[in-house]
Every structure is written in structure tokens, then in C-alpha cells.
Write a structure and sequence with these properties.
This protein is mainly beta. The chain has 4 helices and 36 strands. A hairpin with a 4-residue loop joins strand 29 and strand 30. The termini are far apart.
């Protein structure tokens, strides 16, 4: 009997007496969703095998003639095994997807990333390795951080390879042509298994900056466009905060140290942190040319997974945006609830603008706009810009987001399109129009899980006219679980 059959069998009045609150909530959500044709749980279901490349069907509109390349996306793809399952969404096996677009057509393929964690658990036929929110089980084999690395958060293009990224272990190199795994990427022999953050920042010249966190210190990585290591320096931090993302200008690295603080080292990793709002949020600004030059700013407490690209104004003022919640509840609660088929309504992330002034003052301005997964026109990365691309639109009975938007900081408004609660929309990635130079002159590529059609879809928007809806939509014959982050590589 699968979970859906179990819930249906417990739906009667007589069975309600033995329902746990969690099962009761899942059953209620399923009943309400079914009435609207929505079963959001399919967006967190298992993929049992690699998906070979296959055509997607054009179900709406017409593709731009000069859009060509591959959208690679990474995210968890398998959560359950007969001998045990993950406890948290963030601990599923990494599954790399490739949407390939050319000549007005699209294909989709997906392949699991061959990590030591996946090999151990395949042999055991059970989830045994510890992770972000999953405890170790009998049979766990942990010698270093990469034994627990699912390589399941993000992906970047480096030196002709794809690097699948986690946040507490090494990048995993992959072949972009067929998504085969090459192996863990060691940037220097004495730095084997060191953490490399899932959200690096790329300089206009191509160099990539990333971090690796270890308590109240961080390693600052600098990697050239061909994947060669140019620098790896340790810097002390004002406090041992959870850091999933950071931001940067042309001249500075900006680390946001929120008050979810690591005060012990245990597994699962999330149990190492305590929410300490009385500490507030500290922002550490480092000079890229000399990492010993630093400034620290103070802000009220907030939690954020993701930040937009920062910029510096002529008077030295620094600005960046992010998607803030009042606490770390999603990391600690809903990421686990998803694996039980439950969504627990929580505060929606709100787009905020942070300003750091040369005199030491720091302020934040909330827009009131529901937002996550902030992205920018990559040609403006680290430079002054006007727009933030983001996911938007929420529903009280379904998780994540259902719309795509571009927020205009000049007019204080989002140009948004809402698909409705039947779609769980993933992060939108900007692709510049060939020959274009103006900000957002190009397209947004945004996949979604269409729960009514039980299919993965790929939508293309004119980035300057999002509210007009997709220019075109392709639909796969398959449904893949929601992914987290991606990168577009032009053909």
C-alpha cells in the first residue's frame, strides 16, 4: 500500500481516531487539493532511474527563433528506499536535468549524480548517510564531508564541465554532453573534501568566488574561468552563522551572518544550529584585493537562503537584495514535513533591499512582495542594476511558489505572472537576447511541475513583459521533482 492509498483508507470517521495530527493534515490537504485537481506531493516524489533524452511537446505559443542552448538544473531526485528514507527534502540524491532548446524545439533528460553517498545507499537499499536534516542510520559510512555529499543544490559551468554543488563538500564534475559524472573536484591536494558553497559569484572577467564555512571561519575560494584555483584564504567571522549564499560587488565580498548560529557540531547538520534573534544580523564586507580589509554592519534579525547580486554606488554605498523571513522555520520544519506529504503554512519570504553606507549605517527596506530565488541579468552581476528576477505567488494549501516576476526597483513594482496553485514554479534563469545590451533584453526560462497535467513543463517569457505570460510552453511526458537552481549555457 502506498502513502496515498493509506491516507485514503484512513479518511473515514472511524479511522480519524487513530490519525496522527500530521497524517490528518496531509489527508485534509490531499482532499482539498483533489477537489481542485492539485496533488502537490508529486513534486516531491521519487525518480527511480535516469531519464534518457526525449522530446518535449510544444503546448503553447512559439519559441523565439534565436533561443538556443541548454538549461541545466540540479535538485533532489530520490528520497525513499525500502530500508529507510530521508528526513528532509534537502537530503535527496542529486538529479541533474538538462532542458536543451534549439530550432524552436526542446528536449529533456535527467541523470543521477554518482556520489559516494548514493553508492552506499544503493548497496544498502536504505538511506543511511547523515545529511542536512537526516540522522545517520545503521550502516552509515562517513570518513569525510564528501561521504555525505548529495551534490543536489546547484550547478555552474566551469572549464567545459558542469560542477554540481552542495554547500558542505566538494563540487562534483559532470560532462555537459551526457550528464555523466566525472568525480569529486579537488582544487588543491591539501584542500581535499573542503566545503564549496552552492552559490558562487562570478566576476565580469570570469573568475568565480565561493566560500566554505567551518564554524566561525570561512575559506574564500577564487577560481579562474578554466577551473584552476587562484586563491584559498581563511578569514575569521564575527559569529558562526548558517551561510547558504552570499553576494558581491566588483570590489567586495558581502557575507550575511544571520542569527541561526552553530553552537555545537552534531548530525544532522541542521541540529547544530540555534535560532538566536537577540544577536541580530551581522554583515561582513571584505575587500577582494585584500581580505584583511573588513567592515562589519549591524541589521535586525532575519533569515534568508538567497540574495541578489550587490552593487556599489559612486559614494561607496553598497546595496543588495534578499528574500527574508522572520526565522529559520522552513529549514527546520517544512523541509521535513514535505517528506511526510505535509505542508505547514509559514511566513512568506519577502523581497528586501539592504543599504550599507560608508559611515557605518545599515538599513533594510521591505517591499512587501512575496519572493524567492532572486536572480539578475548576469551582464549586470556586481554592477548597478534596476531589476530582480524572482519566484512569486503563494497559496495557503500548497508549498513553494506559483508565479514568476521581475521587480523594478525604480518604480517599486513587480511585473508578475501567476500560473495558479496547480503549478509549483522553479527558479527562473535569465538568457540574454543575442546582440542585445539593455538590462533584461532577453528571456526568462522557468520550469514548473504542473500537478494537474502530472508533467514537468518549461516556460519561456519575454523578460521585459512577464505579466503577458509565457511566449511558449513545452511539456514533458514525465514529471520530475522540483529542482532548486540552474544555469543556462548557450549553444
Amino acid at each position: 500500500m502506498n502513502r496515498r492509498q493509506l491516507l485514503q483508507s484512513l479518511s473515514g470517521v472511524a479511522a480519524s481516531a487513530i490519525l496522527t495530527p500530521e497524517l490528518a493534515q496531509a489527508a485534509a490537504q490531499m482532499k482539498q487539493g483533489a477537489a481542485a485537481g492539485i496533488n502537490w506531493q508529486i513534486a516531491f516524489g521519487d525518480v527511480e532511474a535516469d531519464l534518457p533524452r526525449g522530446p518535449m511537446k510544444l503546448v503553447h505559443g512559439r519559441a523565439p527563433a534565436d533561443l538556443a542552448g541548454s538549461l541545466y538544473r540540479n535538485g533532489p531526485g530520490k528520497f525513499h528506499r525500502p530500508g529507510g528514507s530521508v528526513d528532509h527534502w534537502f537530503d535527496g540524491d542529486g538529479l541533474m536535468r538538462a532542458f536543451r532548446v534549439s530550432d524552436g524545439a526542446a528536449t529533456l533528460e535527467a541523470r543521477f549524480i554518482d556520489t559516494p553517498k548514493r553508492r552506499v545507499e544503493t548497496a544498502a537499499n536504505a538511506v543511511v548517510q547523515p545529511g542536512f536534516g537526516t540522522a545517520a542510520k545503521a550502516g552509515a559510512q562517513v570518513r569525510n564531508a564528501d561521504d555525505t555529499n548529495p551534490a543536489n543544490i546547484s550547478v555552474m559551468s566551469m572549464g567545459g564541465e558542469l560542477w554540481a554543488l552542495w554547500e558542505a563538500g566538494s563540487p562534483v564534475a559532470m560532462d555537459p554532453k551526457d550528464l555523466s559524472t566525472k568525480g569529486m573536484k579537488t582544487l588543491r591536494d591539501d584542500l581535499v573534501h573542503m566545503p564549496f558553497l552552492a552559490h558562487p559569484r562570478r566576476d565580469p572577467g570570469g573568475d568565480v568566488w565561493s566560500l566554505g564555512l567551518s564554524g566561525a571561519q570561512a575559506i574564500v575560494w577564487r577560481v579562474s574561468v578554466d577551473g584552476a584555483l587562484k586563491g584559498a584564504d581563511m578569514v575569521p567571522l564575527p559569529m558562526a552563522s548558517y551561510v547558504h549564499d552570499f553576494t558581491a560587488t566588483k570590489r567586495h565580498l558581502i557575507l550575511i551572518l544571520q542569527p541561526w548560529v552553530q553552537d555545537r557540531m552534531v548530525m544532522p547538520y541542521s541540529d547544530s544550529f540555534t535560532w538566536r534573534p537577540e544577536l541580530g544580523t551581522k554583515v561582513l564586507v571584505l575587500d577582494k584585493a585584500d581580505l584583511t580589509k573588513r567592515r562589519i554592519y549591524e541589521l535586525p534579525s532575519f533569515f534568508a537562503f538567497h540574495f541578489g547580486s550587490a552593487w556599489e554606488e559612486t559614494d561607496g554605498t553598497l546595496r543588495f537584495d534578499g528574500c527574508f523571513t522572520p526565522d529559520a522555520r522552513f529549514a527546520t520544519t517544512n523541509g521535513k514535513a514535505f517528506m511526510k506529504g505535509v505542508y505547514e503554512p509559514e511566513p512568506t519570504p519577502i523581497l528586501n533591499l539592504v543599504t550599507l553606507r560608508p559611515d557605518g549605517r545599515a538599513t533594510l527596506e521591505a517591499t512587501g512582495v512575496a519572493a524567492e530565488f532572486p536572480r539578475v541579468d548576469g551582464r549586470r552581476s556586481g554592477d548597478t542594476r534596476r531589476f530582480t528576477i524572482h519566484a512569486t505567488a503563494t497559496s495557503p494549501n500548497t508549498p513553494l511558489f506559483h508565479g514568476v516576476a521581475a521587480y523594478d526597483w525604480k518604480v517599486g513594482k513587480s511585473d508578475a505572472y501567476d500560473f495558479g496553485a496547480a503549478h509549483l514554479v522553479e527558479e527562473a534563469v535569465f538568457v540574454a537576447r543575442p546582440g542585445g545590451s539593455e538590462e533584461l533584453d532577453g528571456w526568462l526560462l522557468a520550469p514548473s511541475v504542473n500537478t494537474k497535467a502530472k508533467a514537468t513543463e518549461l516556460h519561456v517569457f519575454d523578460a521585459r513583459r512577464v505579466a503577458a505570460g509565457p511566449l511558449c510552453t513545452w511539456r514533458s511526458d514525465h514529471v520530475l521533482p522540483v529542482s532548486l537552481h540552474g544555469v543556462f549555457v548557450k549553444a
